[in-house]
Amino acid sequence: xxASPVVVAVTRGGLLVRVLISGGVGFIGSTVASALTDxxxxxxxxxxxxxxxxxxxxxxxxxxxxxxxxxxAAGARRTPVDxxxxxxxxxxxxxxxxxxxxxxxxxxxYAQTKLVVxxxxxxxxxxxxxxxxxxxxFNPIGADPALRTGLQTSVPSHALGRLMLAHRAGVPFAVxxxxxxxxxxxxxRDYVHVWDLAAAHLRALExxxxxxxxxxxPHVAVNLGSGTGTTxxxxxxxxxxxxxxxxxxxxxxxxxxxxxxxxxxRELLGWRARRDLATGIADSLAWHDRRERLLGDLAPRRRQLxx
Length: 307
Known about the structure:
Blueprint: E1 6-12, E2 15-22, H1 27-38, E3 42-47, E4 61-64, E5 85-86, E6 97-98, H2 109-126, E7 132-137, E8 139-141, H3 159-169, E9 173-176, E10 188-189, E11 191-193, H4 194-211, E12 219-224, E13 230-231, H5 232-238, E14 245-248, E15 259-260, H6 263-269, H7 277-294, H8 301-306
Parallel strand pairs: 2-3, 3-4, 5-7, 6-15, 7-12, 8-11, 9-14
Antiparallel strand pairs: 1-2, 10-13
Helix pairs in contact: 1-4
């Protein structure tokens, strides 16, 4: 799962001036930065380059560091107005759908860390002037349509990444479990195009003041998904690169999956996913090919820092 960008906007006269993106070299953060640039805003990227590659943010204002340091990045104003998190923290209903009122039940150590942070943010917002808008997204795929940014790891661990690797290696693709309570027995995920996610971040920044009008809760979570789910076998059928499938046992910690209902996103942000699964797959494949030419193999961290 991609790391979670934290977005802090600075406004002047109601207009965006600069937008600090912590983790702005990662998959999602760098794509948000591209969308902000296209919309005429100025992203300022803060990243420690543990995962992301410096080449991704070439030409953008960049500060090496961590969001948790006491001293803020040079030139960054401390006016937090928008924070985003990746989250898979809900217990799905009988139809495997979830919304922002679904019971909270983190099903993995990773999700548990997100749930802890969400609770911390809610507590901080309740006891301070801080207002927090958490954009909770499920399974990002695709890339910047202009192929400026995308998933940087050479060995992705998500289902689409493993499917692409299986095709490239000419080996069968392992489907973990055929007895899940889904329409075909394989696990279900909600895939959403990363460019749609970037558009949601723009909407969140534009509508932040309206969302937190007088009387609103100080912490609001908004789920971002396609509004439907795709099973693993359906994913295989959409990819136009044939690959054999083999049945494999469930892995520890696996779950049937869930999809996000999108009512709150439509009501608060006026947002819904526009790009379909086939587009997300095509853009993922196009970026995977370009990534090798742009980044090559992962460089040692010391070389990244020197760059």
